[in-house]
Amino acid sequence: MESLYILILIGLFLFINQKFVALKALFEQQHNDLLQLRNHLLGNVPVSATTPPVVLPTPPATPYASEYEPPKPAVTPPVPAAVPPPVIPAPPVPAADLEPVLSIAAPETPVAPKKNLLDPSLLNPPVAPPVEAGPGWFARFLAENPDMEKFIGENLINKIGIAILVAGIGYFVRFAIAQEWVGEIGRVLIGVLAGGALLAVAHRLRDRFAAFSSVLVAGGLSVLYFTIAIAFSDYKILGQTTTFAIMVVITGFAVTLSIAYNRVELAVMSLIGGFATPFMVSSGQGNYVVLLTYILILDVGMLVLSAFKKWPLVHWVAYVATVLLFGAWLSAEVLSPVPNPPYVGALVFASLFYAVFVVRNLFDRLRSESTFTAVDISLFLSNTALYYTAGMAVLAHIDKGAYQGLFTIALGAINFGYAALLFRRSADTTLLYLLIGLVITFVSLTIPVQLEGNYITMFWALEAVLLLWLSQRSGLRLPATASVIVLVLMAISLLMDWTTLYGDSATVLPILVNKAFITGLLAVAGLAGTYYLLGKQEKPMSFWVGELAITPYRTFIGYASLATVYLVGLLELRYQLVAAYGLGPNTLLILGTYNLLVALAVLAVVQRFATLPRLGAAAVLGVLAVGYYMFSLAPVVPDLLYAYFTGTEPTRVGFPFQYVNLLAVAGILYFLFRTKPQLTPTAPALETAWPWFLVFTVVFSLSWVLCANVLAVHFAGSDVVHTPTQQAVFTDDYNALIRQIIKVGLPILWGVCAFAFMYVGLVRRNRTYRVLSLGLFALTLAKLFFYDIRGISEGGRIIAFISLGAILLIISFMYQRIKKLVM
């Protein structure tokens, strides 16, 4: 039925094509007729004998010139010659035909003038210019396939026919299996015969139809592969060894066909089938030596084939397939927690695979004496990096990584040998620089690796700098692009290392001299080196989606370097504090001091050297740091005292850091005040917002400092309580003292602050500070009379009232003395 549909479609297509040709000829004939008629009308060609003469009307006789002149005898005036259009001359009229025309030249009644049919304006009316449209898909198809018969006969029918034939065979086999006409052995034989038939037909057509023959060979090989696999896995007709041997034979046959036909697609097909064979015959309990040996032999054969046939695609397919298969086996059977993992065998086969692809890469270039391309460099670098990663991962499980340093220096020596060989036999300076850079990298990594450094992150940090340096020395753009990718990998690896090392509570790392901190420092060095080299970079980084400009990328690397420096110190400090004091108030206070000092240092540097946009960013950072202190750090100090006296915190080592934090906040406020004049022209609201921010920060911060220090002084001689009863009594005393501080201490402190801001407002003639001072006084008085007065002790009430009264009197006196200056 499908074949009938195809024949009907082809017949319909030919019929439409024939009608299209006839219709096209008709339109062309009509166009020619119209063109000829237009030329006749314009006089560009002689008029035929059948064209009728043109009759022109005769004008009336001329009247007398004057009534005083005597009448003259009537004379028939001569017929004036008709003035024809400039383009079309009047045709000659015979004398015999002229008399009738003259006899009716003067009609009794005037005749309306007729339109001149020869007027060019009527012959050529204005027509709107046609809208030009691009050719449609059908027109493009006809242009690309001028010979439709050839397209249908050689390109379309064969593909449709093959698809229908394969589908028909498949439907027949499916029906036969459903009817149980064919048993399991018969099904396998049908598959083998079908694959063999496709190969036989392909062989017969190999000379006249090379591309079509390759398609048939690929289909036949696929049928054979899957038929044998089904015979092993589903029907259990063949054993594992027999199945594996048959598939190896199929692979070898495919390689032979690719050489005989000189078709790279057949070599790729055979390579894919060869790598898929172990999985098709796998039973879940294989011998890894046999598997990896088979892959190694397959790689060697395919690489030799790609070298002598100059098929680089085969090289890449073999490389990618080997990396995927060996990596999957390594992660599942060696690095996973399995009994008796084959560490030595994994290292041996990793070395063999590395050697095969390095030799293939170097051999091809040395044999052809050509330079290394960007693809070759990528292959060489990825092969080295993957081998080093696999080797270090395996060696980490052998004697606790005692041989990792030896492995690193050995790989450096191997690359030095490559460099020496290349220096003698090739003039490719690009690869020579690359090898020298790798040697330097491996030698520099040996000491930190042997000291249990985090080798992968350090390797990528140094590799990023090396690639950028190599790009600038060799002129290649690919290494510079690779350096960006390597830096991203380094950042991800660094975060993973910090999570693993600093998150391991079972192992105590020494202060500063530990692999987590050293890895961070080396990452900072890599970023700093990249930032320095980018100052010399001129060409942008090229990616498949676009280009990365150097200036913003260098700016980003600079910020990333500063952020990494901050994180290196923060994580190391946090780990050591948690290990010593736990994650409690002491740790939070000291970490807060670190954060505030970093913010203060950034503000100091930026205020001195940076431009206006960076000043704005630094000001935002300063405001955030002040808010962090007020709402996160300052409340921790009373909590530290409570935790210490109730026995839940072993020490008060973080208590003195509150003064450092207060000084840091004062320094941040100072630099914000220094930065404000430079930011005010672009943000005028800062001039109004600054007094409010300053007053709130000072009052809020000093309130917490007062509370913490009153608590510390009051409980200075108290003992640490441990029993629940003692803790309950201490809690009651602690809460009672907090209430006294709120009702007595805070009104006095706020009154002093209000007095200070009033003084500043009067001296600097700033009305905002004076308004804020009065507002703070009003808040203090309202709090005193509506909240503090209830339950306050007699002494506290007296002190609060006297202090506030005295402050109010002093402020009133100051107003009276200098009101003429400030009002």
TrEMBL record:
Q: Which InterPro entries match?
A: DUF2339_TM
> Keywords on this record?
Membrane, Transmembrane, Transmembrane helix
Transmembrane domains' residue ranges? 6-27, 156-173, 185-202, 209-231, 237-257, 264-282, 288-308, 313-331, 343-363, 375-396, 402-423, 430-449, 455-471, 478-496, 516-535, 556-575, 587-606, 618-637, 657-673, 693-717, 737-762, 769-786, 798-815
PANTHER family in UniProt: BLL2549 PROTEIN
Tell me the protein's name.
Answer: DUF2339 domain-containing protein
Which species? Answer: Fibrella rubiginis
Q: What is the lineage of its organism?
A: Bacteria, Pseudomonadati, Bacteroidota, Cytophagia, Cytophagales
